UniProtKB/TrEMBL annotation:
Family that this chain belongs to: Belongs to the alpha-IPM synthase/homocitrate synthase family. LeuA type 1 subfamily.
Taxonomic lineage from the root: Bacteria, Pseudomonadati, Pseudomonadota, Betaproteobacteria, Burkholderiales
Pfam family, one: HMGL-like
GO molecular-function terms, A-Z: 2-isopropylmalate synthase activity
Name of this chain's protein: 2-isopropylmalate synthase
EC annotation from Swiss-Prot or TrEMBL: 2.3.3.13
Amino acid sequence: MTNANRLIIFDTTLRDGEQSPGASMTKDEKVRIARQLERMRVDVIEAGFAAASPGDFEAIRAIAGAVRESTICSLSRANDRDIARAAEALAPAERKRIHTFIATSPLHMRMKLRMEPEQVLEQAKIAIRCARQYTDDIEFSPEDGSRSDEDFLCRVLEAVIAEGATTINFPDTVGYAVPEVFGATIKRLRERIPNSDKAIWSVHCHNDLGLAVANSLAGVMIGGARQIECTINGLGERAGNTALEEVVMALRTRGDHFKLELGIDTTQIVAASKMVSQITGFAVQPNKAVVGANAFAHASGIHQDGILKARETYEIMRAEDVGWAANKIVLGKLSGRNAFKERLRELGIALDSEAEVNAAFARFKELADRKSEIFDEDIMALVSDEEHAQEGEHYRFVSLAQRSETGEIPSAKVVFAIDGKEFTCEGEGDGPVDATVNAIEKIAASGAELVLFSINAISNGTQSQGEVTMRLSRSGRIVNGVGSDPDIIVASAKAYLSGLNKLHSKIERVNPQQ
Ligand code: KIV
Ligand code: ZN
């Protein structure tokens, strides 16, 4: 790295973000997000953890083949097998990075790894030596770094840099750090480790105390880190990771203070946020900084008056600079196949075959018959539906009739197919959604527990499609089903069946932190 003021943005939505319960994504969804991250000019995309499952491996390989501008990275534990698997998945990439890690805190070494510190030190060195066979771009993380002994960290980090690690990532794995201490620790480590200048220092923060962004910025300003690891919408396990949109816009908006250069095209932020939320079923809270629906809405009369006179009175960023203005009516009932295809291209959605375009176009026409204005978000939702259909759904929604009236018990009649064979079922419940789920369960008898139900409008106005997320849990497995439709009860039925489809698929993955 020649420019000491250049800050690297390392996105881990597809790896650490995906570790969030229920957020698992298909290969095609991951490729779609990776392409959007590339459009945003993210420097490094951590595409997954190759050894976790065959699905993760294939997704990394597909991303490594599809993305040209960003460096593609795979996580791996500090062992030969994981590292070889990461290298194999990354083979098609133009620029590749292997990110290997091992826990260094006394608690993790003793309780999780059951290893002595000297063994951990040796294992870390061996891992870097192994990774060097495949690439020169190697990142090392001492997991649970913020709760590790500083003298031990100095020994491990000096050793891995000597072996050839080019990025040292300092994780606050459990979100325990506070900004001044976190920044000062990185500064001291860099001062104490004789070869620290041979590596770029990085920060990776979790948000358990709501301090992930503050800790990341302290790591940069006090500690001298020049890489921030983050995720879109702050997606991640528990309270999530550092939110990309928040650190990026803090660094941009307060460039006078931070004085750092970033390669990010901020106008792609909102599109990325909507894509990730729609694919994972993790809704963005309205008051979320930068990407929340209210982030640029000024309800109070005094604020509105000020904004009209001079926008800077109450706005520190421009909505269009993060991509809000891009939200426009794009297509309608009379739009043809070519206009639809062109809009898919502009949204960066590459459907594999003409048959897939035709199927998505048929869904579009069906939607346009029921909804006069079609927004980008509607197109993204219908492409997701189509991708799930192409993957061969076990359960498929067909139709729904529902009745509710004040003072009466709501009832629903649902038709859905299981492996192509149609079933009709009827149910009653406390409300129309409850009646719909009860009807489906009469046939599906899934044994799943509904642990979260949320509904959001995809775009503005009462004609908007409703997007429903249903989080289902069964035998310790958690999945998010997502469904969208102008009729919110139909959207609920689709979301429930989408959740059952995910539970039905046998994808199992290893969690790197277990
Ligand atoms: O939080 C963490 O420690 C991680 C490491 C694998 C970097 O995600
Ligand atoms: Zn993490």
